[in-house]
Design brief:
Blueprint (H helix, E strand, L loop, with lengths): L13 H12 L3 E2 H8 L3 H13 L3 E8 L2 E8 L1 H20 L2
Antiparallel strand pairs: 1-3, 2-3
């Protein structure tokens, strides 16, 4: 089972995998958009986004929209490569077990 060597521990969480899935196909999304799309609580979403940010997989931009703070997230090149690699590992794992 050499596929385990390439298994990305950061992306093993279904929430982080879901976050990367939506961030890879969108230029950027706000905290509230991600929360609504993935049906997560503020705290749960924040902790998973923090882990992805620490891994260098997402970039955070904080700004104001009028007087309200607006935090948006987008996937980085590193995150996109890690996501694609992780999907390849999952696909290989499935093929080996068919």
């Amino acid at each position: 089972m050499d596929w385990l060597e390439n298994f990305n521990k950061v992306l093993e969480s279904k929430i982080r995998l879901g976050l990367m899935s939506v961030l890879v196909v969108n230029e950027s999304l706000s905290f509230n958009e991600l929360k609504e799309l993935l049906q997560l609580t503020d705290g749960n979403l924040a902790s998973h986004l923090r882990a992805l940010e620490e891994a260098g997989y997402v970039e955070v931009q904080k700004q104001f929209s009028g007087r309200k703070p607006l935090t948006t997230y987008k996937s980085t090149n590193t995150g996109q490569k890690a996501f694609a690699s992780h999907l390849q590992v999952l696909e290989n794992m499935i093929r080996q077990n068919l």
